[in-house]
Amino acid sequence: MNFDSDVYVYNRTRDCFVATEVAAANTYVRRLVGLLGKTAKWNRPGRGLWIVPCKGIHTLGMMFPIDILFLDRDKRVVHLEEHVRPFRISKVCLQARSVLELPAHTVDRTGTRIGDQLEIVRHEATQAEAMAGDRVA
Predict the structure, then answer these.
(1) Alpha carbon 18 to chain centroid distance?
(2) What CATH code would you report for 7-136?
(3) What is the pLDDT of residues 21-48, one digit of tens each?
(4) Cα–Cα distance list, 46 to 8, 23, 43, 105, 132 (Å)
(5) What's the pLDDT at 33?
(6) Nearest-angstrom CA–CA distance, 108 and 106
(7) Displacement of CA 126 from its chain's centroid (Å)
(8) Cα–Cα–Cα angle for 20, 36, 1, rounded to 5 degrees
């Protein structure tokens, strides 16, 4: 699976970035593979995997713990789980429309809480806006 950074995640409620290098798992194959096979080298601040659609995850076969944010259709945090160790199964959250898998301690580091409003933006959109701004100036 190609882990090019597709999007970044910004917490509008806390006014901070949650992750800047996030791959979107929005196809069957990408959701199926997820973070399987990733080593601890992947597990560094700023990384993430956004799984769409998703209501629950597992860490079977993973090699490191992760934090999990469950997001509703408006990208509001409706449930979170911190430091989920390998070979665990998360709660199934019926309110969730997507799940954000992050390196362990990201929730604590960013202060993210249930009810926070996240913004998920494609990197191409920000590059296009920057180029448009360059032309205007």
Answers:
(1) 8
(2) 2.60.120.1140
(3) 999 999 988 888 888 878 888 889 999 9
(4) 9, 11, 9, 11, 26
(5) 84
(6) 5
(7) 18
(8) 65
In contact, 47 and 103? CB cutoff 8 Å? yes
AA identity, residue 20: T
- Cα separation, 100 vs 18, in Å, equals 10
91, 81 contact by CB (below 8 A): yes
Query: Residue 55 to residues 30, 31, 66, 116, 132: CA-CA distances in angstroms?
Result: 16, 12, 16, 18, 37
| DSSP helix/strand/coil, 47 | strand
Q: Could you tell me whether strands 77-84 and 66-71 are parallel, antiparallel, or unpaired per DSSP bridges?
A: antiparallel
Q: What angle do CA 7, 125, 4 make, to 5 degrees?
A: 35
pLDDT tens per residue across span 61-113: 899 999 999 999 999 999 999 999 999 999 999 999 999 999 999 999 999 99
Quote the tokens at residue 101: 């898998």
At residue 38, the pLDDT reads 84
**Where on the phi/psi map is residue 20: left (φ > 0), alpha (ψ -120 to 50), or beta?**
alpha
